[in-house]
From TrEMBL:
The lineage of its organism: Archaea, Methanobacteriati, Methanobacteriota, Stenosarchaea group, Halobacteria. This is beta-glucosidase. It comes from the Archaea. Its EC number is 3.2.1.21. Residues 38-59 have a biased composition (Low complexity).
Amino acid sequence: MADRGRSGSPELTRRRLLRASGSAAPLLLAGCSDLEFGGDQATDTTTGSATSGPDGTGSTEDEALRRRVEDLSIREKAGQMTFLALDAQVSEDRARDVVADPGIGGILYGGANPGSFDPEAVASKLNEYQQIATTETDHGLGMVAGIDAVHGNATNEAAVVFPHNVGMGATWRPDLVRKRAAVTSRSLRAMGFQWNFSPVADVLYDPRWGRYYEGFHESPSAVSSFVSAAVEGLESSGDGTATVASSVKHFAGYSMPDAGNDRDDARIPLRDLREKVFPPFEAGVEAGAETVMANSGAVNGTPVHASEWLLRTVLRKQMGFEGVVVSDWADIRNLISEHAFLGHGQFEEGVKVVVNAGVDMYMAAESPGQFVDAVETHVQDGEIPEARVDDAVYRILRLKKRLGLLEDPTVDTNAVTDRVVTQGDFELARETAEQSMTLLTNDDVLPFDGPDTVLVTGPNADDPKSQHGGWTLGWQGLATETTPPTTTILEGIRERAPPDTSVEHVPTDRGAFSEHDAVADAAAAADVVVAVLGEGAYAETDGDVESLALPQGQRELLSVVAEAAAPTVGVLVAGRPRGGDRAFDALDAALMAYYPGSEGGPAVARTLFGDVNPGGRLPFYWPDSTGDVPVASTVRQITPGDADRFPIGHGETYTEFDLTVPAVEPSQVDPAETDTVRIAYDVENEGDRPGDHLAGALIYRNGSDPTTKPWIRVGPFERKTIAPGERQTVTLDVPLDRLAVVGGDVRGRGDWVVPAGTYLAYIEGQETQFTVTQTVSLD
């Protein structure tokens, strides 16, 4: 029996609370008493069948799709469940063989490494593959073509590159994520892609992890907002053209591996899974995501690809996901090579485990024959129910129908150039980069006031690869001399500097610091030094680190420029917090630029010279040292005054805001009477330039709690631009369900409850409180 919480009337339930609010509260996995969190096994054998259809509508359209499934042989069905890596290195004869027999369901055209960076050449090659699929197979089914375009269509040499997700999170503007996704959708579709492996719904947790920069935020509710926006942008063109399927990834727990080591086992209590890991994925499902990608790692000792409980009980039954579940890269093979879950030579056994667990489509790095043969054999032997295969193929064909691939899957190569990139894309990229700029510290150095000489130095000053980060014309970042349109930070400063300002550049290596004398001489002659520091490009395991300190060579560079009289501004180009006491003590100002993309140079330069008033805010806590991680607000309650180096939401500006003490209505919250707390305050811009105020509250418990980790919640937020001398009233309506925790004993199988007690709301140095008078169950 689920624990209903410490107190409160049994009549006061989630249903009553939500009737009053009109909220669907999808992020709480509604109806937890029905979630069967007590068991480890899936609660059903299949999630649908060729005779009933997963959506159960029984429409004429469904009947037609079901008949197409029935018309396929087992081998052809297994082919449709195969998503194969192809690129320009595959000969035409070989491509014809693997596409035509048995007729594969989809192709990964190089992932982030397509066979060509020329968008027209890519479109032509994909058309060739589609022609083979539609004319040289018995069923004539077009393929779904997928790719990793995770920060704009950064897979070709023409398209603009946007900031990575961690920088988008720093904007605190989901609307920009939606716009970026729409641009990406249009650009991908023009090239012949219909499937984008994005967005990432993993919460930021441990910055040692090599994929940290691919996440938006450390708050589950904030991540949910960004994920919903990304799904909507990718899948809703708004102009009547075909859209691109999103893939919410990596379900689930991928961002929490032990010690930040990519794909290592993640040990996550059930309570944390429910409170912190699942909500952004449910938000993606609620937004209409067509596909979900499974986590390559393991959770609590079980590889996710082998977990019926995660893929079928949680994702299918509780979240109600009806789309396609796709594996990550070669993750049947990884059951053997990475997880030792199966023994050497047990690939066929892995096929049975993964398909029965709930994976519909396998992203195969190897020849498709091995997977197809295994599915066919297992179905014939009764090890995989044919209804399970029919269910997977139905979902795949339904996806293809929605994307228009059952009609004509080819694209007009003459229209590629006009649609793959527009001038508006660059304008949006500059806006997002500017909005992400986060001023960490400033000792009255910024903005610049007409310096005669500016020294620009550091390894990231003139390096497009570092400015774009990973997944840009290559998995680990730029892999060749081909570069997408880019203005580097050095170029941006030179373009923006006044005509009478001299901009000097002393490049430094990424490794050992060997430019001591050149940097020292130039710094001594400069009025201000801009040291562009941080990280290079990386992805996945190659980005795992043991320390968050800046590399030794960069620390030596800072020691040298600190000896000069000129103040030093540090610009950090990185996908995570890098730098501790030694670095910040040497800087007179520090600007976090994340991985800003094509327009990063102008965005940084315009911020340094004051054309842009920085308004970005950290989407994570910045720890004092590596020994403090994980320090996320979801790990332990850190009151803002007790934060490590910088708290979540931190960011300075070039103006001053005055806030009145927030008022709360009601201050005594009776859940039987209201489901919302309203926090209101006035904010005035007392400076001489427009500035952005992040209207939002960090809310945390002050007192007893049903659990021992009353972590900080990010309330509703909105970024507001306020003119000099202008005064605005901010109203934040905080739903009570935003404060919910999972009750119960150690196992975390209890109901969602909003505990009675006092809550503190922290808003930019101001604090207020309210009291919930009785515990309310949301189940």
